[in-house]
Amino acid sequence: MKRKLAVILLPVFLLAFVTGCWSRNELNEFSIAAGISVDKPGDMYEVAVQVLEPKQYASNKKGGGGQSPVILFKAKGYSISEALRKMTKTSPRRIHLGHLRILAIGEKTAREGLNEIIDFFRRNRYFRADFDIVIAKGTAAENILTVMSPIDNVPAAKVFQSIETSEDYLSSAAGVKLDALITTLSSTGKSVVLPGLKVTGSLKKGNSADNLKTIEPSSDIELLGLSVFKDDKLIGWLSQQESLGFNYITDNVTHSGLVTDCPSGKQKITYEVMRSKTKIKGKIQQGVPRVELFVRTEMNIDEIACHMDLANPATIDELQEDASKYLEQLLTNTIKTVRTKYKTDIFGFGEVLHRADPIAWRELNDNWDKKFADLQVAVKAEVKIRNMGTVIHSMSKVAGKE
To answer: Could you tell me if 228 and 307 lie in one domain?
Structure first.
């Protein structure tokens, strides 16, 4: 009898401890942050957080409203955490950072180093690691959070989507999430690259809701080439073409475009890159590292101004050979620039060599940046043209013009 009573009362007893949640947080106690910026012009951090204003955000989505759907809170502190706590002086609610889209870091601050900044984000258990880290070139990082766009009136969300779209269709940008950044910072065979942004036009007009009401906005945020780091410090920038070359080398091209000269050299051919695959092999012989890079790309002809017979298989072979040489030169120039100008391995060649020969890599590891500058790299590209569109001849050929 006592045993049966104990079985009945035990669940009741346990329920007494689970009926409440001692650490619960109600949704209406928080402001949801979409983006955060960090600058450090002196001894103190300047932190800005872009939070959603729910009523205005919903109103603007429906086509109404005339006010900003976001609010920017700013504070200074000797640490990022202190600055965020100080924001409660002006914010009526606690700021929740669990749904961030971007973390923007000022260029000057990035040149001083990322480690102290990233330490805060990797320790905080409320963060999801799926936000992009970007560098604000030539401006304070908080300005990236103030420019409003008609397409997406939440600046942080607009930047996040622009990076995702550009990565898919242009391939001169490469979004970097928190986990990937931490992994690269901890690596000895690969250096960090991060996408760069700049403010175009009038910043004063760009942070007004009036910027949402015009066909041609007074200001916008533009994606730049990739920023190059050595250890955790920003040391320079890649051009758009070099950034494209970097993405080919690191096998991060899905769809893109490629513009080359016609064989005659007078007009241009534009290709649509449909798929690309990069394979890298490394070996170390008698202490000398060597890397072999092979890129195979499938393309369609998007536009052609050449006076050429595309029905002739020999013509396609010629175009494929020219495009292959062009791509090889693009990759070779990108590697040369990084080796001679920045002398740091952003491509992960060191990681490839480490996997290929862990024992030999030990002798290269401590002085890899110097060895990287003299690394032997063989580049080979193979382009296949899969589709020429719905017509064979260019308009130049149809019109009988060269």
So the answer is: no
